[in-house]
Amino acid sequence: xxxxxxxxxxxxxxxxxxxxxxxxxxxxxxxxxxxxxxxxxxxxxxxxxxxxxxxxxxxxxxxxxxxxxxxxxxxxxxxxxxxxxxxxxxxxxxxxxxxxxxxxxxxxxxxxxxxxxxxxx
Amino acid sequence: xxxxxxxxxxxxxxxxxxxxxxxxxxxxxxxxxxxxxxxxxxxxxxxxxxxxxxxxxxxxxxxxxxxxxxxxxxxxxxxxxxxxxxxxxxxxxxxxxxxxxxxxxxxxxxxxxxxxxxxxxxxxxxxxxxxxxxxxxxxxxxxxxxxxxxxxxxxxxxxxxxxxxxxxxxxxxxxxxxxxxxxxxxxxxxxxxxxxxxxxxxxxxxxxxxxxxxxxxxxxxxxxxxxxxxxxxxxxxxxxxxxxxxxxxxxx
Lengths: 121, 252
Prior knowledge:
The structure holds 2 protein chains of 2 kinds. Chain A is of the alpha/beta class. Helices cover 43% and strands 19% of the residues of chain A. In chain A, helix 1 (12-23) packs across helix 5 and helix 2 (35-44) runs parallel beside helix 3 (61-69). By secondary structure, chain B is mainly α. Chain B has a domain at 1-34. The longest helix of chain B is centred in the N-terminal third of the chain and has 118 residues, at 2-119. The chains are: A alpha/beta, B mainly alpha.
């Protein structure tokens, strides 16, 4: 059975890049254009891992992570941050609130595959 | 006596009046130059006002054009990615077919070799055997093709990596748009303050900044691994600190 990855990013090109990199390795990719859409999708789909941007409209990545971590049903889903934010504060906050990994844009898809496989294989 | 005092008073007043006229005479050229200056300045001020109004009216268009650029590059990038995806899939398909072909050729070669003992002593058959043997494709002839396919896949991968520049530039353009919005707000405020009717009509211009746009003004297109290394170091330092904190807590 294919592992399902939810990608939350307001940039359609980034969603496409991530899908391009991961679908090739046999993962099923679901896309959300912001944190709110991602939260709506979580209960209806069996999500194995979440990749999220931080700067997003409506519900940003920080809120998305906090909400996932505070929900009994989803709190154990691995979360990878994929963001262009590189300040120490953003990175530390992202990790503190419960992200498992932090990748910087532009990202290396090999590194992303490595991080994903760390949690899914 | 009283009349003399009055006359003296009158003369004093006339003197003052004369002094005033003399002063007025001196003042007239200054007033004239002031009027001339105003005459010169008013068209200049009007010109400035028109320029501000003109610039303000152009800002929404500039912003709209920036948004169009973002949309166009987004669309083009998606199309290129689809093509790269298609090329990669095709290459994988050809690679798979090639592998099947090599396996088949190897099978053929083995079968062919097994024929050899049966045709020894038959020069005619041996001659045909040698001819056919030359036509069986050896795996080493195919290997360069595999190398080419690997290169094509690497190029495709690098294209996708480079195309991420679109996301970074989109964020930079959004940051520029945000700055333009601030400038427009200031100019609109200035125009309102000037209270010149013909200019004021531009005062309430709205700018089409798309809703729900988020951006990182510091986003940079940097393909080097340096940013990721910095992040990894921060996370490593953070986790070490956490561990030390936990140890301290445990023994406190």
